[in-house]
């Protein structure tokens, strides 16, 4: 399983592949002050939500490249022939996707927080929320990527599939208090637990 | 004991029967050559043999690990050939040597020619050490030397007690191979 995680992590960063979602995330955060005006109090109040929405959109970008290239390249065939459980392959992909994506996103959030004039307390709250919520985002992205693999216009369909399912993460991620964080963690855990099996089923269907 | 058996196997794609009543029994050292016009289900049969597809009817039994060669080489294109192979097999350099690719082990896969990639995919099969080889159009892109090399590898594999099933349009030398003709 470890070589699998290492391979996916290397592929994700090869050629700056994961720089694009991070750059996109920062760009959205930069555009917001332009759109709503330079009112620091207003930006401080909506900043947490802006970061969550930007993170969601950034998590969507790599989704279509998570599974489709391996299905086309015959890699999933080879795992199946070797009787490697596809759920294990999916779990490794999930781990690699989160490792490649979440720490960079959380670092970029510090920069975005400065642009949106977030207080230190709000930044801590957002970072904690991202720490709990990004595994769920990664799980959604992976399952979506597997479901749309091989379809024409996969990127657009991925958005339509994934964004509505991410609404609970968004609500609990931007909610107030410890209760919201607990619910965020629970939602994230549920997605992480379910995604490998959904992904494996989609990959098996893709072997046809 | 290494064995591969098909009993009355049928395959359907998109609601259409591609072939039916295919029987095959291979023991250690045996080989089969699958032929037939385009679209008669050669690749489908190979995927059924590999266990990737379920047959519409009939039974498949495999006794032994399988190595499958398809159109897709399943090697990471941005990696040097040696490292790309190392993901699948334990001794990539020996396998590359056997396929005449030792000189390009450090060249990224995407820089290689079609024939070299096909040889690299065959190196994955050769280095896998599995008793059952399923080769779908192994000669695609190979030059005359490569075809002769493939014949030698197949002979060595069978001499060592392996089973080989080859689907091909080209002439592959498989002495004593069962003929499976689809779409006849």
Structural features:
heterodimer, A: 208 residues, mainly alpha, B: 184 residues, alpha/beta, Rossmann fold, 8 strands
Structure write-up:
The complex is a heterodimer of chains A (208) and B (184). Chain A has one domain (2-206). In chain A, 83% of the residues lie in helices and 0% in strands. In chain A, helix 2 (19-36) runs antiparallel to helix 3 (40-60). The model of chain A has no long low-confidence stretch (mean pLDDT 90). Chain A has 208 residues and is mainly α. Chain B has 184 residues and is of the alpha/beta class. In chain B, 29% of the residues lie in helices and 29% in strands. Chain B has a domain at 3-65 and 130-181: Rossmann fold, CATH 3.40.50.300. The model of chain B has no long low-confidence stretch (mean pLDDT 90). Chain B is built from five helices and eight strands; from the N terminus they run βββαββαααβαββ. Chain A binds chain B through residues 3, 7, 11, 14-15, 72-75, 77-78, 80-82, 207-208, and chain B through 47, 50-53, 65-68, 70-76, 78, 87-88.
Note the topology.
The complex is a heterodimer of chains A (208) and B (184).
Chain A lengths: L1 H12 L5 H18 L3 H21 L7 H5 L2 H7 L4 H30 L4 H29 L5 H12 L1 H8 L2 H30 L2
Helix pairs in contact in A: 1-6, 2-3, 2-6, 3-6, 3-7, 6-7, 6-10, 7-8, 7-10, 9-10
Chain B lengths: L2 E11 L2 E12 L3 E5 L6 H9 L6 E7 L2 E4 L11 H6 L5 H7 L15 H15 L3 E5 L7 H16 L3 E5 L10 E4 L3
Helix pairs in contact in B: 3-4, 4-5
